[in-house]
Structure formats: C-alpha cells, structure tokens
Design brief:
This protein is of the alpha+beta class. Helices cover 46% and strands 10% of the residues. The chain has one domain: DD-peptidase/beta-lactamase superfamily (Beta-lactamase, 3-Layer(aba) Sandwich), CATH 3.40.710. Bound molecules: glutamine. Glutamine (GLN) binds next to loops.
Length: 306
Amino acid sequence: MDYQAVLEEVAAHARPFVRQGRVADYIPALERVSADRFGIAVADIHGDVYGVGDWEIPFSVQSISKVFSLALVMAQSHDGHDNIWQRVGREPSGTPFNSLVQLEAENGIPRNPFINAGALVVTDRLQTLTGDASTSMLHFLREESGNPDLAFDQAVADSEAEHGDRNAALAHFMASFGNLENPVPSVIEHYFWQCSIEMSCRDLAVAGGFLARHGLRADGSRLLEAREAKRINAVMLTCGTYDAAGEFAYRVGLPAKSGVGGGIIAVIPGRCTLCVWSPGLDARGNSVAGAAALDHFTTLTGWSVF
Ligand code: GLN
C-alpha cells in the first residue's frame, strides 16, 4: 500500500469539505483555531508514519483523550476484575455528548465511556488508580507518541473550567447516585486537563498504535490483553462519534473517536491507526472534512471492519 499516495488523494477529496462545519465556540479558547486547517496521518503497526497537510500541527485532543483514559484504566485493573463496567455502560446513547437526560432514569450510570458523563467516571477511576489522572495520561501519551514535548494547553483548560457548568452538573448528578469516588472539583479538573492536551495527527496516530496492535505498546510491551483492545475498538465503533455513530459506521466502517477540537482517530486492527484533523464540526460535534476523509480512505483502500 502506497500510504503517501492514498493520503494525498484523500486530502484532495476532503479539501472542499474544509470550512463547511463550525469551529467549536462553547469552549471559547477553541475558537482561535483557523477553520482552514486539514491534516491526516497514518501510523502502521511497525511504527512507520505518513502524513499530508497540517499533520504535524498540534491541536486540542478534547474527547479523543477518552480512549486513552479508558485504556489506562483497563490496563491497570484488567476488565473482568474491575468494577468500571458496573459504573459505566457500553451502549450507544443516541444523545449529544454532553447530554444529561438518560442519567436520571438510569441511576447515574452513563451509557458509555465516550460521552462526557461516562468519561468523567473513567477519569474518576483513573484518579483513584494513579493519584493524578491527567498527568499520568500526559506521561503515557508522551511515551507512546515518542514526543516528549506534548503538553497541556492551560488556556483551553481554564476556558473549559470557566464554561464548565454542564460537565460540573453531570459530575454532581452522578455523585448524588454514589457513582464518583473522588470529589467533583478534582474529577472535572483532571477531565478538563486531559481534554486540553495538544497533539498533532502524527502524535495521535502513533500514540493510538496499541489499538491496531491488539494491545501492544510501541516498545513491544503489553498494555492491554488482545481482547481488551478489541473491546475498546468495539466501543469506539458503536459510541465513538456520539449520536452519529451509526452514520459513521455506515460511511466509514471503522472504530473511531472524535473530539470537538476537530480531530478523529480511527483504527484498522492489525494494520494501522489514522488521525485526521479539521476544526469545522457538524451539528453532532464531529469534523466534517475529517469524516469525509475517512470515508474516502476506506473507499479507496477497501479496508474497513466490514
Ligand atoms: N472537553 C469537551 C467537553 O467536555 C469535550 C467534548 C468533545 O470533544 N466532544 O465538552
């Protein structure tokens, strides 16, 4: 497979979609990013990386961090022996990523780990396991991406905290059902920090390599059992793009996780991990040009899980 040629064709296909969506502004600091950006990278399972466009420019990972927090919790406790799946489900929600509506009827148990409520529970667990959830994630991402310069973006974290009433409400509501182990202010603070990490398409494609390598880290050591990596990929496919997950599976056919920074990572198990970035979002919070690019990538290569 000539990845470089495929990526160039994908980028040409996606260009007209750049600027079609809206850059997220509910976290004011995210708004300063240019809507013209587009980058895409592929890291194969051997660690070779290819990219085009703005693939080396860092952006705010936002909800893509939710994949890594789940992986770190599973790595430290191994599912089956951990209670994380008693505290968060694995069903698509069919509701927006920051929705409150199901929580009351479902006793404070979020539908899945990739909507905000579920991610707050996972961060809470990571906080219990590590004593410093966001820093342990940053260290993991630096190691796994091979980029020691990865950092939090304090302006984004502060901006999100300042406008964080919705996430605070989700956390307090779950705490009222006894579904948080740590104080709400600490859980939401670590969640905002993890969302603020800045990474490029290159960094994210490389750091997500363990999902394509059935749980093996970049250095060959095991992060997750193969069945655990399979489960994360399954939840990405069914829940990783929120209430657009059905449409995304229909168009792209890959496990994927999006963030309101405009990034999307996608996994082709046994082959490679992709990351695409373009800040213009559709109404459900997924990158318009990013989805178009992944759609075209699987069309050109014929690679999907189906
Ligand atoms: N930090 C963002 C929030 O909690 C993440 C949302 C997202 O990327 N979908 O609202």
